[in-house]
Amino acid sequence: MPQFSRIAAVTGANKGIGLAIVRNLALQYPSSAFNNGPLLIYLCARDKERGEDAVKKLESDAQLNNAKALVQNGGLTTVKHHGLDISKTKSILDFAEFLEKEHPEGIDIVVNNAGIAMDGFDINVVKETLQCNYYGTLTATHSFLSLIRPGGRLVNLSSMVGQLNSKYSKYSGEIRTAFAESKTVDDVTKLMESFTKAVEEGKEKEQGWPSAAYAVSKSGITGMTRAVALELGERQKGSRVLVNSCCPGYVNTDMTKHRGSKTVDEGAQTPVLLACGDIGGTSGEFWQHEKVIEW
Fold first, then answer.
1. pLDDT tens string for the chain (295 positions)?
2. 149: helix, coil or strand?
3. Distances (CA, A) of 159 to 44, 102, 253, 272, 292
4. What 3-state DSSP class applies to 236?
5. 211: which residues sit within 8 A by CB, 6+ positions away?
6. How far is CA 58 from CA 81, 96, 152, in A?
7. 124 CB-near residues (< 8 Å, 6+ apart)
8. Which one of 14, 47, 77, 118 is at 20 to 30 Å from 86 when CA atoms are compared?
9. Given its phi and psi angles, is residue 282 left (phi above 0), alpha (psi -120 to 50 degrees) or beta?
10. Interior CA angle at 185 toward 181 and 188, to 5°?
11. Residue 244 backbone phi and psi in degrees, to 5
């Protein structure tokens, strides 16, 4: 018999929203319908020392201790650090291979939270942002999805700044329509390629794109997640994996330069709902404030 009944992985989890997602998964799992025994959460982070420090922080967390959420206090959840850099394909594939070997029976929950927000705007910022936020999340989604057992969940963290009518995205009607009508991952990836090419040529505004790499990368994540869910739905029968994207809100983190109005625990609520809560079989949607909203 495996030591753990449920296996989860959260990327970009050594601080901010990612760490809060791990913390709230541990708190909410025991009362969730997902609870069928011991839970192992892989807290994924690029830096080994920071990842291990994050695990220690959780082990000394007063609320977790009072709730007896962790194994050390007689609870159900064990948290382990594992190295992962989603901007590097090899790192993603290595982690997927590790999961497959370590848990041949499959895993249950993946929350792709890792991402970057860079200052400035030029072709290097665009390429680096898309490589991590879009292409890295896409590779992680495909690599981990095949490991998730029926009834499991995959959650991709997106953002309201990538909403098609957002004041930040400022897409032309043509590009907005192209995103809205995209049906496959290839459709969305072609839009990311078009944006990159337009920036390389210095014609992004002329062609209807905003000068905003982060916003475009998040539109890509939302569109790609919907497309993955559509493709998966066509292949799956019976109990299926639910795939959704969400915006955690404007959270007080390093990424927002601590300007956000929400706490990290408040920002974690929607991702954790999508990871282990009752969402009525919903898949392929974009969520905020614990409900489906228009992309």
1. 579 999 999 999 999 999 999 999 999 999 999 999 999 999 999 999 999 999 999 999 999 999 999 999 999 999 999 999 999 999 999 999 999 999 999 999 999 999 999 999 999 999 999 999 999 999 999 999 999 999 999 999 999 999 998 776 689 999 999 999 999 999 999 999 999 999 999 999 999 999 999 999 999 999 999 999 999 987 766 558 999 999 997 555 555 455 655 788 999 999 999 999 999 999 999 999 999 999 8
2. strand
3. 21, 33, 14, 16, 13
4. coil
5. 121, 204, 205
6. 11, 24, 24
7. none
8. 77
9. beta
10. 55
11. -140, 160
Instruction: Say if residues 246 and 157 touch (Cβ distance below 8 Å).
Output: yes
Taking the chain, what is the end-to-end CA distance rounded to the nearest angstrom? 43
Catalytic residue set: 214
Token representation of residue 73? 């206090």
Question: How many whole angstroms separate alpha carbon 65 and alpha carbon 75?
Answer: 9
| Contact between residue 134 and residue 88 where contact means Cβ atoms under 8 Å apart | no
Tell me if residue 152 falls in helix, strand or coil: strand
Integer CA distances (angstroms), 261 to 14, 23, 118, 159, in order: 21, 20, 20, 15
- The span from the CA of 42 to the CA of 25, in Å, is 11
Structure tokens at 52: 């291990």
Dig out the tokens for 71 from the structure: 């194994």
User: Which residues, listed in sequence order, are joined to residue 9 by a DSSP beta bridge?
Assistant: 42, 110
Do residues 43 and 143 make contact, with C-beta atoms less than 8 angstroms apart? Answer: no
CA distance 150 to 185: 22
Query: Who's near 221: CB < 8 A, 6+ residues apart?
Result: 133, 134, 137, 156, 157, 158, 162, 245
CB 58 within 8 A of CB 79: yes
